[in-house]
Write a structure and sequence with these properties.
8 helices, about 325 residues, alpha+beta, globular, four-stranded antiparallel β-sheet, single chain
Length: about 325
């Protein structure tokens, strides 16, 4: 497959919740389309996903306001070296590909968006926490709908097997994370290390990921069996959704967690402009034991929490 399918998600938006009857022909077709995408390329564009562009634009505005702050100010909201993953991740602190230098990016991680004890930059960015919490909830609701459709596409005996283990995304017992990502513009005098790109080749760690892109290119995907990356450019009105590692383990490789990266655009007009994206990394509850649904034991059982922190400990540069 040399492109990423575009799928209309509007059939699921007519339902009030994932517990409702999903036997209609429209939803079965939707489930089949998403299953086909996730079992081949591992990525899909979703249009008519139910989150307004106005809301997405407001979150991008918060990104702009926060990331333009001085590093000394942002440091007050930094992600701690241990414990919670919440907070600012400094420029070049992450290296998701061990074969490359640290990533040419910074980020702000959000977990437990209603937790007032977290470090929130509301004194610098008006309504930061409340806007983020609202967007987090919208992403969580959309994620549950996607997970439910995925179960239908897999023809699982229990179509609630995924949604039942993702009920409390905004809590201390779940590592679902919203990431505000900022890739600085690269001018002529910027220092780019040999082999450095904006985000190195990697797979995501959890169940699925929702990605909201601005209008700058750079995301690239390596479909199964291919040797060359294909672009995943922004499509107005659509978001990117991809399978992550735990879901691939869960489905014994039936659904594909596909390698992807964010390259440095060759065009100067794109390279000089900052790139922003919003990534919603969906995880099951921490104590969920991930084991192959087909009983094959292709992968040994592991809890969602143990798998995530094993991967994270190999990612951060200290």
């Amino acid at each position: 497959m040399d492109n990423i399918p575009v799928v209309d998600f509007s059939a699921m938006n007519s339902l009030k919740g994932t517990h409702e009857d999903c036997s209609s022909a429209a939803i079965k077709q939707l489930a089949d389309e998403i299953h086909q995408a996730f079992s081949t390329v591992g990525f899909v564009y979703l249009k008519n996903h139910g989150i307004s562009q106005g809301k997405i634009d407001r979150i991008f505005k918060l990104c702009d306001e926060f990331f333009k702050l001085d590093s000394a100010v942002k440091q007050k909201y930094a992600r701690p070296r241990s414990g919670s993953g919440h907070g600012w991740v400094a420029f070049e602190r992450e290296r998701v590909c061990s074969d490359r230098p640290a990533d040419h990016k910074e980020a702000f991680n959000i977990t437990e968006p209603q937790n007032d004890l977290r470090a929130w930059p509301d004194d610098k960015v008006t309504n930061f926490q409340s806007e983020i919490a609202s967007f987090f909830d919208l992403c969580g609701d959309l994620s549950l709908r996607i997970l439910h459709v995925m179960a239908i596409g897999l023809q699982l005996e229990d179509p609630g097997v995924f949604t039942s283990t993702h009920k409390i995304m905004a809590s201390t017992k779940n590592c679902t994370t919203l990431r505000l990502l900022h890739y600085p513009g690269i001018s002529e005098d910027s220092i780019i290390k040999p082999g450095q790109i904006r985000c190195g080749e990697h797979t995501d760690y959890g169940s699925i990921t929702l990605l909201f892109q601005d209008d700058m290119p750079g995301l690239e995907v390596l479909p199964l069996g291919c040797t060359e990356y294909i672009p995943a450019p922004p499509i107005p009105g659509a978001i990117v959704v991809n399978v992550a590692d735990l879901m691939q383990r869960w489905t014994a490789d039936l659904l594909k967690s596909t390698r992807h990266r964010v390259s440095v655009p060759p065009e100067e007009c794109h390279r000089r402009v900052p790139r922003r994206s919003l990534a919603f990394f969906v995880h099951p509850e921490d104590d969920t034991v991930i084991k192959c649904l087909d009983g094959s034991e292709k992968y040994p059982p592991i809890t969602a929490y143990d798998y995530l922190w094993h991967r994270l400990n190999a990612t951060y540069e200290y």
